[in-house]
Design a protein that fits this description.
By secondary structure, the chain is an all-alpha fold. Helix content is 81%, strand content 0%. It has a single domain, classed as Growth Hormone, Chain: A. The chain has 16 helices and no strands. The chain crosses the membrane at residues 12-34, 54-76, 83-104, 110-130, 142-167, 173-196, 237-259, 271-289, 301-320, 326-348, 360-383, 389-408. InterPro entries: Atg22-like, ATG22/LtaA_families, MFS_dom, MFS_trans_sf.
Length: 411
């Protein structure tokens, strides 16, 4: 039986902590809240879907620009933990601040969300790279998969609490307004994120890194150039990053746009929240299964399997017409989303130098975030042009196809 160390457990717990943001804020309650809010000020649900896509693209652009610089700086000994602390706390604070934005002021709400998403995303740059500090190479696939798996379960606990409050208000059991109750869910998410980040802050330290040198702001451009030169020499890592750029684009877009997509199809908020909750529970064992299967099949093969399943999802979504079919779609997503994310992280960690792990993961995240600009924007534009969100989702199959070809050809 695999023995999990204290450092590995603490690292896994950060997935448990910040996944509450990914589920409650990024994927479910906030997008539904936003769609209803803009609907009340006279905008259509389709336009709300487009605006939500554009907002995620803006946040991803900012993160993509900052990731390689932050990653390069954090590879100096003693810096990775400091950057992780700053950005994780930025995400926590601005998630809580969402509750204090007056209802109807959708622009300030989106600005606050963008800042919280920047904190979430950049803290993950450093979190992901810590995998080379907390475990050995032979355990990376399993530990990475456990992180995503427990992230799914951990995110459901505050989500169930928030959903219970919302449903209690809907049924008249809890004498609170829906808007106020939704805002409470933002505070609950922030508290959960903060509390379960503490073990990571206490027990995990940087092991691999370069000797510290004082950084001058005027050297920023040179840092970008030097980092790029070092990374591009690793041909296998570069080709993988190109493949990752395309296929993770589709994965992230489906995760971020799922609630908005379901709302546009006419699925009521309660049903949608229940579906997305069940998705988290189903994703838990499948993420672990993907990790376990790497002892039989190579991680690369399991990544190919995950991409093919997502291509099937895009086609299925195009023909979907009912809540029952949305259930089936969600279970298909749950079967692969954790596995493809976890194995991408561990596969990349094994083909890069440990002393430059944060620099490499800076580019890993920049490729992921630039992809997350393209995907939501693609769905938003095609939905706006055609008036049908299904066309937007179907367009993602192209991204999965390109990613699959590059991954298979990378030797």
């Amino acid at each position: 039986m695999l023995k999990i160390t204290k450092k590995e457990k603490s690292w896994i717990l950060y997935d448990w902590a910040n996944s509450a943001f990914a589920l409650t804020i990024m994927s479910t309650i906030l997008p539904i809240y936003f769609t209803n809010m803009v609907g009340e000020v006279g905008l259509s649900k389709e336009l709300a879907t487009s605006y939500w896509g554009y907002t995620n693209s803006i946040a991803s652009l900012i993160v993509a620009c900052l990731s390689p610089l932050m990653g390069g700086l954090a590879d100096y000994m003693g810096m990775k933990k400091k950057f992780f602390t700053v950005f994780s706390m930025l995400g926590v604070v601005f998630t809580g601040l969402l509750a204090f934005i007056p209802y109807g002021m959708w622009m300030p709400l989106m600005i606050t969300y963008v800042i919280s998403l920047i904190g979430f995303s950049l803290s993950n740059v450093f979190y992901d790279s810590f995998i080379t500090d907390i475990t050995i190479e032979s355990k990376m696939d399993v530990i990475s998969s456990l992180g995503f798996a427990f992230g799914y379960i951990g995110s459901t606990i505050p989500f169930i609490l928030c959903m219970g409050l919302i449903m209690g208000v809907q049924k008249g059991v809890i004498p609170l307004g829906m808007v106020f109750t939704t805002k409470i869910s933002f505070v609950i998410t922030a508290i959960w994120w903060f509390v379960f980040t503490l073990p990571m802050l206490k027990n995990v330290e940087q092991v691999h890194g370069k000797p510290y040198v004082k950084f001058k702001p005027s050297e920023t451009f040179n840092k970008y150039r030097e980092s790029f030169k070092r990374v591009k020499k690793n041909k296998k890592a570069v080709i993988f990053l190109c493949a990752y750029f395309f296929y993770i684009d589709g994965v992230d877009t489906i995760i971020r746009m799922a609630a908005s997509f379901g709302t546009t199809l006419g699925i009521d908020s309660t049903t949608l929240l229940v579906i997305l909750l069940v998705t988290q529970f189903v994703a838990f064992p499948f993420a672990i299964i993907y990790g376990k299967l790497t002892s039989i099949f190579r991680a690369k093969i399991m990544l190919v399997v995950g991409i093919i399943i997502y291509m099937i999802i895009c086609v299925f979504a195009f023909f979907m017409t009912s809540a029952r079919e949305f259930w089936i779609l969600s279970m298909l997503v749950a079967s692969s989303q954790g596995g493809i994310q976890a194995l991408s992280r561990s596969y990349f960690a094994k083909i890069i130098p440990k002393e430059n792990s944060n620099e490499y993961f800076g580019f890993y995240n920049i490729f992921g975030k630039f992809a997350a600009i393209m995907g939501p924007a693609l769905v938003g534009i095609i939905t706006q042009l055609t008036g049908n969100v299904k066309n937007g989702v179907l367009s993602l199959i192209m991204l999965f196809g390109i990613g699959l070809i590059l991954l298979v050809k990378n030797r």
